[in-house]
Model the fold of this input.
Amino acid sequence: MNPAEPLHRRPVSPEAFLLSLICLADLVTTLALISHGHAREGNPWMAGFLDRGAVPFIVAKLCMFVPAIVAAEWYRPRKPLLITSVMRVVIVAYLLVYVLRVGPEAARRFYAMPGQ
Done:
């Protein structure tokens, strides 16, 4: 891959694509679970955006991950092994946090008996 090639002409890495999907899935599931009363935003900073509505929350969430993924894709031709490895670690870490922290909380709230 040529580092001088414009970013918009380069193929997107599988890691960037997967991480984008994970982040978007997190965004959508967060809004869906919160709107049905099955979850709450655990990040106090993001909760502040959510208090202002769905659109500010979505914009803030996108501003958190899109620039990082674009920067990684921009830098990938210069250090492909480093960027690929870091992206894979981020994917695993994100999924672990989601499964170990968010999943049980959402399941507990979703399956809670009425009146509990």
In short: The chain has a mean pLDDT of 86. The two ends are 57 Å apart (CA to CA).
